[in-house]
Amino acid sequence: MQVRLDEAEAAALKGGKKIIAQLEQRLRQLEQDLEGESRRHQQTDKSYRQAERRIKELEFQVDEDKKNQDRMTDLVDKMQSKLKVYKRQVEEAEELAATNLGKYRQLQAQLDDAEERAELAENSVSKLRAKNRSSASMAPGAGLTTSASAIFRSPSRAGRGSSAMNFD
């Protein structure tokens, strides 16, 4: 019975050693798997940190782009306001120019009429002088009196557009 017991112990020891060897092999395999998973975790963690950094950079860029867009929108609004003011000023200037052009044309027409009247008056004065000279040469010694000479003025003294006759 002792032999059996020894054999059973030997078999148990042999089986235990085999189980221990298997468990040690399994432990080494699990340690290798753990080491591989640890490396993958480190790589994943590194990728995660890089992704987080990239997300923060993109969020910052989005914020900057939004600020720039807001500034540009404000600038566009200001430019549109200035454009409206400038358009209004141009319209007012055009209205003023049209008014001034109308006044200029009216004054030019009045000037043309006045020059025409002055020319007619000068022609009338010239005819009257010629007639007066011819009548004076027909009647010897009958010259113009002082009061008659005051009636007619020379065109150079009367000036353009003013009356050629003096009715004192």
TrEMBL record:
Low complexity: which segments have biased composition? Answer: 153-168
The protein, known as: Paramyosin
The protein's matches in SUPFAM superfamilies, at most eight in alphabetical order, are given as: Tropomyosin
Superkingdom of origin: Eukaryota
* Similarity annotation: Belongs to the paramyosin family.
Locate the region Disordered.
122-168
Q: What lineage is this protein's organism placed in?
A: Eukaryota, Metazoa, Ecdysozoa, Nematoda, Chromadorea
General function of this protein: Paramyosin is a major structural component of many thick filaments isolated from invertebrate muscles.
Report the GO terms under cellular component: bicellular tight junction; myofibril; myosin complex; myosin filament
UniProt keyword list: Coiled coil, Cytoplasm, Motor protein, Muscle protein, Myosin, Thick filament
